[in-house]
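Quick start: what a row looks like.
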Amino acid sequence: MKEIIDYLLKMLVDFPDSLNINTIKLNNVTVLEIVADPADIGKIIGKQGRVIKAIRAIVNAATVKEKTKTIIEIREAREEYPSSNY
């Protein structure tokens, strides 16, 4: 599932190198955390949420036989700056 979402989103975003999908499994629930560049968040969500709704529909259709629930979360990629002692 992760590979399908990764492929779809890399075709959609401007900064595919900063795109990362993390998988967290808890019992019968799988959380797919999409971490993307802040400039790409709007493209992932789409107008009125249409793109992310379509991605969620694909994921739900693919996981029906597995009888698991999949949740998709979107987060901004944050650069970590080294702390300075000024």
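That is the whole record. Residues 2-76 form a domain with the GMP Synthetase; Chain A, domain 3 fold (CATH 3.30.300.20). Residues 50-62 form the longest helix (13 residues).
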